[in-house]
């Protein structure tokens, strides 16, 4: 497990504790940038998690419902576990803690059905579209994230994703990714 995963996990936990939506979104951007250079499932999951948590914290309606404080406390505790296991470089325990955190979020999402797309699916779609906008092929972005190509195209077009991505991947970076995939 890379030191960057431990750092990112710690930052996600800290930002969630502080209820800092902006910081969670910045962490999300850094995660996506990192997986754009070299795909790593732990960093990918942290990208999904940071996006989902930023959405949860940005919706005041979550804090007005009965029982939500328990969900948020459970998420916080799971994040503390994730951060701890990442620092200890215990990949199995880190993965189990991440799954526990996502399951808690799924229970929260099932209580509030006003989202058209579940939070995690929307996060995956955002990551896939960003990777596509950064220069990954549509097929690659789809394969890495599990999102259908047509959904990526629709989201990228609706959000004008290409206009927001500032840096393009160099040919060297693209070759590095291709070599890793086929290597």
Describe this protein's structure.
- By secondary structure, the chain is mainly α.
- The protein has 2 domains: 1-115, no CATH class; 117-183, no CATH class.
- The protein contains 11 helices and no strands.
- It has helices at 3-18, 21-37, 41-57, 61-64, 68-87, 91-111, 119-133, 138-145, 149-159, 161-164, 171-182.
- Helix 1 (3-18) packs antiparallel against helix 2 (21-37) and helix 7 (119-133) packs antiparallel against helix 8.
- The longest helix has 21 residues, at 91-111.
- It is globular and about 50 Å long.
- It starts with a helix and ends with a helix.
- The relative contact order is 0.12.
- The model has no long low-confidence stretch (mean pLDDT 84).
How many separate helices? 11
Largest sheet: none
Query: Given the C-alpha coordinates, what overall shape results?
Result: globular
* Quaternary structure annotation: single chain
What count of domains describes the coordinates?
A: 2
Q: What share of residues are in beta strands? A: under 5%
| Radius of gyration over all CA atoms, rounded | 16 Å
How are the secondary structure elements laid out?
Layout: H1 3-18, H2 21-37, H3 41-57, H4 61-64, H5 68-87, H6 91-111, H7 119-133, H8 138-145, H9 149-159, H10 161-164, H11 171-182
């Amino acid at each position: 497990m890379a030191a960057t995963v431990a750092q990112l996990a710690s930052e996600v936990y800290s930002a969630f504790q502080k209820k800092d939506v902006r910081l969670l979104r910045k962490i999300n951007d850094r995660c996506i940038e990192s997986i754009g250079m070299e795909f790593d499932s732990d960093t990918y999951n942290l990208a999904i998690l940071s996006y989902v948590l930023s959405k949860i914290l940005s919706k005041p309606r979550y804090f007005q419902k009965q029982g939500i404080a328990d969900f948020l406390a459970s998420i916080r505790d799971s994040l503390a576990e994730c951060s701890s296991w990442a620092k200890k470089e215990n990949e199995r325990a880190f993965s189990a803690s991440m799954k526990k955190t996502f399951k808690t979020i799924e229970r929260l999402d099932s209580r509030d059905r006003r989202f058209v797309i579940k939070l995690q699916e929307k996060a995956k779609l955002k990551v896939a579209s960003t990777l596509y906008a950064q220069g990954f092929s549509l097929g690659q972005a789809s394969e890495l994230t599990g999102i259908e190509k047509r959904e990526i195209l629709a989201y990228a077009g609706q959000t004008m994703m290409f206009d927001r991505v500032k840096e393009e991947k160099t040919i060297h970076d693209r070759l590095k990714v291709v070599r890793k995939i086929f290597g």
